[in-house]
Amino acid sequence: MRGFTMDLFGIPPPDGPDADLARRIAETLAADARFRRQPVAVQVQNGVAILTGRVESPDVHDALLAEVRQVPGLHDLCDALLITDGETRLREARQFGELAARLATSPSQGTRRGSPAAVTARVVMLAVTAAIVLIEVAGWIAALFGVGVLAWAADVLLRRRKR
Hints:
The chain is an alpha+beta fold.
């Protein structure tokens, strides 16, 4: 009755029938180029696979489920995947950008436009927006680099503030 969770690019799973099934499902998904860039997590418990994460289109969703259903040893499949097409991502990024721009151009009462807090907030908003665009355009590796740059920038700003 022990369950097991495994990401496609995560730590190798422990032994057991659920772990073997999760490994076979992950290998099946990793072998197909259509599914490699989809952030999908596989959890198996008592022969039932639970798929969570996001896929980029209804076509990829249907193809992914069809591939997983063909894996030997699978008793049942629970689909908890979200379909996020490009239009949805673009709309979310646009809404975030509009909010960030509105906040950057109209500071809250009691905050001077050029105050260090206002400047820091603008820089952080622009950096987060850039990170979202970077993830969409260049992928997760570039995003990790971007997060590192953001952490460095935050460190510099905090050290400057303490002086």
